């Protein structure tokens, strides 16, 4: 199988620096099912083309270890697997261009961060089940998509069209984004992963889908196919997306800024107004709030905690901790932990942010969070947000009685939230005020409700 990437950026040979592969050499590397090769069919200052060729051993496939599918007796031996672009090619992309996919370039860092003109050719790209699928997947990402179809066999036209197409993609895009799009969408078009799909694939999907998958019109199809139609993994991946953002974007009078961005900015504003220098981000997820707090000089000590090591790894990548200057890196710590257990690491902070977290806990276990956060850690300020269940009626995608995330154990009305927050404040010696986040409906209130707790003097 073959993929070529060309650019007319001047000088075009900078492509070698961006891909970390010398145009004057052939780079050969091993794969579980064969070999991969990177070489340059052309390399001038006007046009430079890098080719990735994957040679798959059909014997390995026929033995069922490399993507052979059950079916007719000859199918494991006679198929398009050695030739058609698939997850084999995705594996080769990561193996050959891992540094480029991270967005790093030691010799051309400015170019790595810029959008450049690229043309990608895939001479045998499957679109199983939908010949228009390449356009539906790559078009919304800003690509011009050219598709050339061919018969399965010119000598036997009655056999119909080939499931593979010659596809050309053209766009001005960052190289790291181009490689991420190819890595995710090629297996989606093929609709078959050649290896066992586990929770690790969720990490890959979220990592390489960051910044574009959440808003892609074919997000559900991409998630379903990339995770090999495994429903449990699909649900876990969907929990990382924010239905509120999608619904808010389509609501009458909605602003261009997503609800999640409004929420994070509102929390940041409260932390700044509190004068906090040290801040806990409890349930920090992928570091979206921390990314907003880190540039603010007021915050000299930040600690993000999450129960999932996998999500913390994503946060480290999103925040690029390894690349931060030492003064920034020294201010930020990421730790694994649970809000339901006392933790000495959480003591001594000025403020804590608990953003869209409590609804993921069983209602009967909320007392453990109350004891841990308000009773033991006792920051001077706590900023806490949670969905407003009443506002769900604004969204047709949320039938009555449906929560916004599959992992939500409950969602509260405004009165239920106020009753809980006032009880907690009174029990642990805090005063509490309430804020609205997002577009406020006159009857239903805001989509997100916020409580700001301030510890009272003894």
Automatic annotation (TrEMBL):
E.C. numbers: 2.1.1.386
Example GO molecular function: RNA binding
Catalytic activity: small RNA 3'-end nucleotide + S-adenosyl-L-methionine = small RNA 3'-end 2'-O-methylnucleotide + S-adenosyl-L-homocysteine + H(+)
Pfam family, one: Methyltransf_12
InterPro entries given in the database record: 3'-RNA_MeTfrase_Hen1_bac (IPR024026), Hen1 (IPR026610), Hen1_N (IPR024740), Hen1_N_sf (IPR038546), Methyltransf_12 (IPR013217), SAM-dependent_MTases_sf (IPR029063)
Cofactor: Mg(2+)
One of the protein's GO biological processes: RNA methylation
Domain (Hen1 N-terminal): residue spans on this chain: 1-239
Highest taxon, organism lineage: Bacteria
Domain Methyltransferase type: 280-365
Family the entry assigns: Belongs to the methyltransferase superfamily. HEN1 family.
Protein name, per record: Small RNA 2'-O-methyltransferase
